[in-house]
Amino acid sequence: MIVELLVVLLALYVGSRYGSLALGAISGIGLAILVFGFGLKPGNPPTDVIYIIIAAITCAGMLQAAGGMDWMIQIAERMLRKHPDHITFYAPLCTFFLTVLVGTGHVVYTLMPIICDIALKKGIRPERPCAVASVASQVGITCSPIAAAVASFVVISNANGFDVNNLQVIAITIPASIIGLLAASACSYKRGKDLDKDPAFQARCADPEMYEYMYGHSATTLGKEISKSAKTSVYIFLGAIGVIVVISLCQILGCDIRPRFATGALDDAGNPVTKPLAMNLIIQIVMLAAAAFMIICAKASPKKAVAGTVWQAGMVAVVAIYGIAWLADTYFGNYLTQMQEGLSGIVKAYPWAIAFAFFAVSVLINSQGAVVVAMLPLAYSLGIPGPVLLGVLPSVYGYFFIPNYPSDIATVNFDRSGTTVIGKYLLNHSFMMPGLVSVTVATIVGYLLTMIIY
């Protein structure tokens, strides 16, 4: 059991070192070793979750191809430039809500140079808003009704007897995450030396070429003309999200409007038993239909969508979740009894302690959706109540701990001032403090909210 666990951890570690598609592909090597080498019965690949991700990223990719994301970024930039003094608070809120709307944190790449430019021109140390904004772009994943992490939580929870939908999940994660981000922003407000007192920055300013590089141009989208079709794509996208939210809200209020279908079984009176259409299927149908409407009504180019960063990053996530979750399900499924016996005492006394396991796995796996798919079934099998797992859901974001995630690396490169850094000792980087503060506070608040509500 221990040797096979080392195989799983080694596969995750090597995959994380290579990054991108390697996370899923190298997990396949670990899966092959467990099945062919140790004779473990293979688990089940997370097909339901993968289908949701494909539908969501197809829709978001079409939105990007139609130019709709450019309009959303432009709106965010106008707000930021209108309130530059408070950019350390407003920047992370912008990146957070963009992720909530689109379902992926990769939209941050367009906005991050603008955040850095505004801070630098205002004389604010760019590290302060940039680091927490990068963290916020990932925090928003557990708050998006179309994100893989939320969809996975709903599908797995429903299968384990916790009847919850997407709207109920984000009703907990959004307020918890916002409070966590505000705490991280407050801790970042006076972080580091002011630019006029920072000797390293002043040395960069003394170099004419470096000064020109930092102050010689402005990053902006305000001059970009937004077409009518781009705006149409945003309306279609928001309409699709609205449909999902309305269906979920009606379900909560007891007036379920989902279509019902016969299951093939009969009740005691001999009448056919019907079952409502599952929310994961509704999300897939709505997202695919919205993508089609963008092609027809907003002139979104499918070829351009496939070449876009959102669609490519989403497909990388599909492969990562496919390999990682299958590997984890194979290992945990074969040793479930032993784990229940060994962990039952701790779990019964401190069910919230599962948050530490979620966080630790996320440090190795650069995907919150993959963490949910890999760890949530185990958590339910240990007898942890669904509301507790919902409360600690923000803890599935831990991959800021080792600064190898694309958004963090890109943020370091976008900060022309050189204040956002990866330290000499790797872990003393700009994202550590805001990440720890945000996730810790959000997890505590989320847990308290579920204890009050449930």
Give a description of the structure.
The protein is mostly helical. Helix content is 69%, strand content 3%. It contains 21 helices and 2 strands. A two-stranded antiparallel sheet has the order 1-2. A hairpin with a 5-residue loop joins strand 1 and strand 2. Helix 2 runs parallel beside helix 15, helix 4 runs antiparallel to helix 5 and helix 17 packs antiparallel against helix 18. The longest helix is centred in the last third of the chain and has 26 residues. The chain is globular. The two termini are 37 Å apart. The model has no long low-confidence stretch (mean pLDDT 88).
End-to-end C-alpha gap: 37 Å
Count of alpha/pi helices: 21
How much of the residues is beta strand, in percent? Answer: under 5%
Largest sheet: 2 strands, antiparallel
pLDDT under 50 segments (min length 5)? none
Strand line-up in the sheet with most strands: 1-2
Structural class computed from helices and strand pairing: mainly alpha
Task: Name the helicity range.
Answer: 55-70%
